[in-house]
Amino acid sequence: MNLNKVFVLGRVTADPVVKSTATGTQVVNFSIATNRVWNDKSGNRKEETEFHNVVVWGKQAEIVGRFVKKGALVLVEGRLQTRTWDDKSGQKRKTTEIICEKIQLGPKAAGTARSAAPMHEEEMVVEEKGVPTIELGDDSEEIKEEDLPF
Hints:
The chain contains 1 helix and 6 strands. The protein is mainly β. It has a 5-stranded mixed β-barrel.
């Protein structure tokens, strides 16, 4: 069994820009910075920053382009992919990127809440007034053992 799964929580380093492929599919590339903090053997505090390149496709790319700005906190779930190409001078280049499958946005900079629900291409709904509400139904409804899927 193989698994290629990545979760990265960090800050966006620059405003994402949405582009389109020749077939009209939207794509956005951006970078996330993550920090690691630890104490060395002498007890001195150390900090290291890592930068992660992210690629988002389709409807999620449009959403990222509209709502994600430099400095925003985002949680990206995806897979690692390495690609190679020849640059203008004929040199081989290689990069490893996170191909985004799901993204969650952190709070807005002004402190107003943003939805913590994951944005899936098929179920993303943008509401104009704050956090979307989730209707769970009648509280008096009893959960029965036979209704459980496992």
